[in-house]
Write a structure and sequence with these properties.
This protein has helices at residues 4-7, 47-63, 87-97, 109-122, 152-165, 179-194, 213-222, 233-245, 265-268, 288-301, 307-325, 333-341; strands spanning 33-40, 67-68, 71-79, 102-105, 126-128, 145-147, 170-177, 198-206, 226-230, 254-257, 276-279, 344-347, 350-354, 360-370, 373-384. By secondary structure, it is of the alpha/beta class. It is globular.
């Protein structure tokens, strides 16, 4: 059976500048209570992702004795249900209604863009623990908005680099025609072509169509060195099985970003053997932080942590650094934001720091699906920064 919390993952989730002091709303009396707003889905398709992030931030708080920088932590939760139409209302509820000191959100890129617009105008310290839409750390970047996950194009870039290292020169791309798919393919193409690779053809189909037979026939006739594909969840499972059913896996290797195989490893069975992907986290990473985090998360929740939990955990690590720099005084926003921008720490994913647009500079790992498990086989790209096109912080 497919693990339910992972099967529901769909691609949309999968989706040093000078800092000027942001606009600060009139100060409220500061109490010892630190109010952290969590704008995350607890219902709908992406609820499992929201749950993983929430579990990680709550576990981190518990391990800090329920305090950050001497202030008692209170989480104020709003279920955004991954509905962009309600994003403005929900964000306003936390910022203006609950008057949270910090905002953490969200999973869905459409919700994140609406959330970021309000947060930018307010100047509230905001941490994004999942949404991969490239604009958040490009044209829509802001001094007070920080991402602890990934940019969609960044993952594509890492995969393109890994394919070139493997000697692949001619590729076909296949994905759903929507924002996340286009951005992950876009990042891949930029890196692949820059390294001397050739894109024979880009093939798309409407989201969430899973009728792949004609596409697979075309891939077979084009005879590329490899296919770069972005699907996720049930769509990815069907694509991988159909790809093997057409026996393309015997002659044309299948590659993609990590979400192509995450959550469907065991369900893919032998059809998935040999599929290579790149992602910024692998559960088997051998470093002290990952071992400790995995053990504690498993002890608390009886399930292994995933990439979403790691992204939530690191949001809290980044927040702690910012708060400690100002002695817990969130009214000192400019100083707090500078400390967060300059933060560097060890994460379960490896070394973590931020680029000038506040997107993580991070390692991406090359994995191969074998026997129902994504096995670590090397580094796809080391210390990779996201594209900062259009980002102006001043």
């Amino acid at each position: 059976m497919i693990n339910r919390r992972r099967l529901l993952i769909l691609a949309g989730a999968a989706g040093a500048s000078t800092i000027a002091a942001p606009f600060v709303r009139p100060s409220w009396a500061q109490s010892n209570t630190l109010k952290i707003g969590l704008l995350l889905p607890s219902s709908g398709t992406y609820a499992p992702l929201g749950e993983a992030i929430t579990r990680a931030v709550e576990l981190y708080a518990k391990q800090q004795g329920g305090k950050l920088a001497g202030r008692d932590i209170v989480f104020v939760k709003v279920d955004d249900a991954s509905e962009p139409a309600k994003a403005t209302e929900n964000t306003t509820k936390l910022i203006s209604g609950e008057k949270v000191d910090v905002l953490v959100g969200t999973v869905h890129s459409g919700v994140a863009m609406a959330m970021a617009k309000i947060a930018r105008e307010d100047g509230l310290p905001t941490l994004v623990p999942n949404a991969g839409v490239d604009a958040l750390t490009r044209g829509a970047c802001a001094p007070n908005i920080f991402r602890t996950s990934f940019g969609n194009g960044q993952i594509g870039d890492a995969t393109g680099q890994a394919m070139l290292k493997a000697g692949i020169k001619r590729a076909v791309t296949v994905t759903w025609k929507y924002a996340a798919g286009e951005e992950m393919v876009g990042g891949f193409k930029k890196a692949f072509i820059a390294g001397g690779g050739e894109i024979i053809k880009d093939i798309t189909l409407p989201f969430p169509d899973v009728e792949f037979q004609s596409i697979l026939a075309e891939v077979g006739s084009l005879k590329p060195d490899a296919v770069y594909s972005f699907f996720a969840g049930g769509g990815a499972l069907k694509f991988i099985k159909d790809y093997a059913g057409a026996r393309l896996n015997e002659k044309i290797p299948l590659w993609g970003p990590g979400f192509l195989t995450d959550g469907i490893e065991k369900a893919a069975g032998p059809a998935g053997d040999g599929v290579k992907t790149a992602l910024h986290y692998v559960e088997s990473l051998d470093n002290p932080e990952n071992k400790k985090f995995s053990e504690e998360f498993m002890a608390a929740y009886k399930v292994a942590p995933d990439v979403y939990a790691v992204q939530g955990w690191d949001a809290m690590q980044l927040l702690r650094i910012g708060l400690e720099a100002v002695g817990g005084d969130t009214k000192k926003r400019p100083e707090m934001l500078v400390a967060m921008r300059n933060a560097s720490f060890d994460s379960p994913r490896g070394p973590f720091k931020l680029g000038p647009s506040h997107n993580p500079i991070q390692n991406f790992y090359l994995r191969e699906l074998r026997g129902g498990e994504n096995k670590l086989i090397g580094i796809a790209a080391e210390k990779l920064a996201g594209d900062t096109t259009g980002c102006k912080m001043t």
